[in-house]
Amino acid sequence: MAATQTPPGECPQCWEHAHNKSIHRRLKPREDCQPCLDHMHNGCPYLVPKKPSRWW
Predict the structure, then answer these.
(1) How far are the Cα atoms of 6, 9, 33, 36 from residue 50, in angstroms, in the given order?
(2) Residues 21, 34: contact at Cβ < 8 Å?
(3) Mean of pLDDT values over 17-29
(4) Prediction pTM value
C-alpha cells in the first residue's frame, strides 16, 4: 500500500504504482509492468471518485 490514502479523483492503482517503488523494483531491466501497460491501453478499471466541490 502507498504511504497515504489515494486522494479524491485519483485511480487507486495508478496512485499505488506511481508512489510505491517496490512494485516496479522486481522487474528486470527493460521489462514492462503488465498492469501499467493494461492501464495505458484500456484506461482505469476503477470508478474514480471526483474531487469534492468547494464552489458553494
Answers:
(1) 12, 4, 27, 22
(2) no
(3) 88
(4) 0.62
